[in-house]
């Protein structure tokens, strides 16, 4: 059975499709996929969570051919075939503890669990090189079949994470490095608050942000925003595009600083950088929302060292770095703030830095 984790991004948001830096970690919440080979070319996908089974054949799967949640699963079969694999007809049985629509990468967890399950069926060893092939197949499934033009962060961490570490990903050259997280020893925990406001990356907001970044890159005449400096930004005439670019440039710098802070066990500094990232996403990139801002502000008032939205935004989850003895108080303060604001109840989860996708019994 294939198993792949969801993720939170500690810092480095909306930088992946700008050849930038990200620092996500895999969660203990994961999706499993049992793949059974068929003798014909039929494909079926069933989920314990979603009552919408999909059936078809390998030939029915491709860009523009499948809609809904199953497109993320069967899109991987298409992408693996595109990369030259002889994928047989399969029955896929999906089960998951990754909350859907919470910005915790349930889609990538599904794709990566399908990918490792199929790799196992075909007797491929999960070598580091094969894992990178699977990252690319899952990314193609999501953008070309499911129609969500995402940047690769989620699939990369789901397939390449290490337990106890965040994964520094440099999207300029695709390189990755483990960044061990020692906050347990300092008595800290990373809390996740799912606002239960659903977001969908196939909606226009994400694609519009990408388009703004591309326009700013073109205005600067650079290969990507990774090459841009703050001083360059005056040359981006459109204020909205300038704000998007400012977020990306400052966010890359914050990721570099965060890696240093983690290495120096400077958790106060890490918290400050996380909060600055949220402000930049809220004001310059405009992907936060009232509920995410409320979680962040409330968590900070209740004693968090830092807090920010995580993932694509427009709803989903926020994270907060908190002293363990303040964790309950922070969670209760958020609950009360939501009641006071007349909003629905949030879900509280824990971010335990976990291992990557693999095969389980
Ligand atoms: C979503 C996307 F899927 C990622 O590729 C990334 O762009 C993220 O939003 C924002 O950092 O999770």
UniProtKB/TrEMBL annotation:
<keyword id="KW-0299">Galactose metabolism</keyword>
<protein>
    <recommendedName>
        <fullName>Galactokinase</fullName>
        <ecNumber>2.7.1.6</ecNumber>
    </recommendedName>
</protein>
<dbReference type="GO" id="GO:0006012">
    <property type="term" value="P:galactose metabolic process"/>
</dbReference>
<keyword id="KW-0479">Metal-binding</keyword>
<dbReference type="InterPro" id="IPR006206">
    <property type="entry name" value="Mevalonate/galactokinase"/>
</dbReference>
<dbReference type="Pfam" id="PF00288">
    <property type="entry name" value="GHMP_kinases_N"/>
</dbReference>
<keyword id="KW-0418">Kinase</keyword>
<dbReference type="GO" id="GO:0005829">
    <property type="term" value="C:cytosol"/>
</dbReference>
<dbReference type="InterPro" id="IPR020568">
    <property type="entry name" value="Ribosomal_Su5_D2-typ_SF"/>
</dbReference>
<dbReference type="InterPro" id="IPR006204">
    <property type="entry name" value="GHMP_kinase_N_dom"/>
</dbReference>
<keyword id="KW-0808">Transferase</keyword>
<feature type="domain" description="GHMP kinase C-terminal">
    <location>
        <begin position="260"/>
        <end position="335"/>
    </location>
</feature>
<feature type="domain" description="GHMP kinase N-terminal">
    <location>
        <begin position="72"/>
        <end position="160"/>
    </location>
</feature>
<dbReference type="Pfam" id="PF10509">
    <property type="entry name" value="GalKase_gal_bdg"/>
</dbReference>
<dbReference type="InterPro" id="IPR013750">
    <property type="entry name" value="GHMP_kinase_C_dom"/>
</dbReference>
<dbReference type="InterPro" id="IPR006203">
    <property type="entry name" value="GHMP_knse_ATP-bd_CS"/>
</dbReference>
<dbReference type="GO" id="GO:0004335">
    <property type="term" value="F:galactokinase activity"/>
</dbReference>
<dbReference type="GO" id="GO:0005524">
    <property type="term" value="F:ATP binding"/>
</dbReference>
<keyword id="KW-0067">ATP-binding</keyword>
<dbReference type="InterPro" id="IPR019741">
    <property type="entry name" value="Galactokinase_CS"/>
</dbReference>
<dbReference type="InterPro" id="IPR036554">
    <property type="entry name" value="GHMP_kinase_C_sf"/>
</dbReference>
<dbReference type="InterPro" id="IPR019539">
    <property type="entry name" value="GalKase_N"/>
</dbReference>
<keyword id="KW-0547">Nucleotide-binding</keyword>
<comment type="similarity">
    <text>Belongs to the GHMP kinase family. GalK subfamily.</text>
</comment>
<dbReference type="Pfam" id="PF08544">
    <property type="entry name" value="GHMP_kinases_C"/>
</dbReference>
<keyword id="KW-0119">Carbohydrate metabolism</keyword>
<dbReference type="InterPro" id="IPR000705">
    <property type="entry name" value="Galactokinase"/>
</dbReference>
<keyword id="KW-0460">Magnesium</keyword>
<dbReference type="InterPro" id="IPR014721">
    <property type="entry name" value="Ribsml_uS5_D2-typ_fold_subgr"/>
</dbReference>
<feature type="domain" description="Galactokinase N-terminal">
    <location>
        <begin position="3"/>
        <end position="33"/>
    </location>
</feature>
<dbReference type="GO" id="GO:0046872">
    <property type="term" value="F:metal ion binding"/>
</dbReference>
